[in-house]
Structure formats: structure tokens, C-alpha cells
Design brief:
This protein has 145 residues and is an alpha+beta fold. The protein has helices spanning 2-39, 43-46, 65-73; strands spanning 49-56, 62-63, 83-94, 97-109, 115-129, 132-143. It is globular, with a radius of gyration of 18 Å.
């Protein structure tokens, strides 16, 4: 029992480190997606998305990867000066599947010069395909501020 406790003490910090590293990886994928909208250039984002990925947004419609790519290419100019912050980040990995959930605040300046904030609750599912993680599901739901 004493040896088991010692092993747990040694492995516990390693487990925390791996989970934190896992969270930052998937959060960085979200940031890459936001950057693709800002630059109207999906090229950096495409490699992280499965060809059959499903996207649902605040308009309650299903979209494909190709539809999101077109949205990125024609994103409104408000994205150029916009910013996103991420809170309440939770990632859980189950074998080759990782679920990320977070609260995101999208801040932008409207055409009349006002600062606007919109909050969304995101859920994203990634599947490990060989050595690569691929986004297979993305959902965003607006939340009251």
C-alpha cells in the first residue's frame, strides 16, 4: 500500500500536466479557427477538420466543412479588429475522442463605433485519426451576457 501511494504521488503531477497540455492544444485549434475568420483564409484551419464534420450555430442550421470555408472567405470585416476570450474551459478525452466545452466572448466594434460583446457556449468534438486530431462536431449557442 505504501508503494502504491508513492507511485500515485509521482504520477499525479504528470496526469495534471498532460490534461493541461491537452486543453491548450484544443484551445489553440479554436484560436486557429478564429484567426481564419479574421484573415478570411481557412488554409491553416482546414487540416484540423474532418471532411464530414458537422457545424451547428446560433441560427440552428447544420453546415458542412465546405460551407464554413466559404463563410471564412467572406467573413464580415468586423472580424479584423475583433477578439475572443475563452473561459470555463473543459476538455475530456475518452480514448481517441476529445470533447472541448468553453464559454467564449466575442468582442467587436460595430460600424457606428460601439463596442459589442456576444457570448457563446461552444462544444467541439475531436477524433484522433492516426496521429492527427480532427474536428468532427462543432456547436455554438449564444448565451445572455
Amino acid at each position: 500500500m505504501k508503494n502504491l501511494s508513492f507511485i500515485f504521488i509521482l504520477l499525479f503531477p504528470l496526469t495534471i500536466f498532460c490534461q493541461a497540455d491537452n486543453s491548450s492544444f484544443f484551445l489553440n485549434l479554436m484560436k486557429t479557427e478564429f484567426e481564419a475568420f479574421q484573415k478570411k483564409d481557412p488554409s491553416l484551419w482546414i487540416k484540423y477538420v474532418d471532411g464530414n464534420a458537422i457545424f451547428t450555430g446560433s441560427d440552428n442550421t447544420f453546415k458542412t466543412k465546405d460551407q464554413i470555408i466559404e463563410e471564412m472567405k467572406s467573413a464580415p470585416d468586423i472580424f479584423i479588429s475583433a477578439a475572443e476570450t475563452y473561459d470555463d474551459i473543459i476538455t475530456r478525452t475518452y480514448g481517441n475522442t476529445t470533447v472541448l466545452s468553453c464559454l467564449t466572448t466575442f468582442t467587436f466594434i460595430s460600424s457606428d463605433g460601439n463596442i459589442n460583446k456576444i457570448k457563446f457556449k461552444f462544444t467541439r468534438v475531436h477524433i484522433k485519426d492516426g496521429t492527427e486530431w480532427k474536428l468532427v462536431y462543432h456547436s455554438s449557442i449564444p448565451v445572455e451576457i
